[in-house]
Amino acid sequence: MIGFVGVAPGHRGMGYSRSAVSRGTHILAAHGPTETRGDCNAANIGMFKGFERAGFTNFANRRMYSRKL
Length: 69
Description:
Elements: H1 16-29, H2 45-53
């Protein structure tokens, strides 16, 4: 599972998210799993594109909720 990939604002749009996801996928694959999953907020278009460019297929959409206590 790739749970978080962050790219600093000044470096966005340069393909770093795809590179980070690809590298993480190769590291995980070297240790035996047959499937890798990633997660990002549905509104995070840059990260969504990074996963797609790294060969991932979207299989769900996520909604986030919060409530003050």
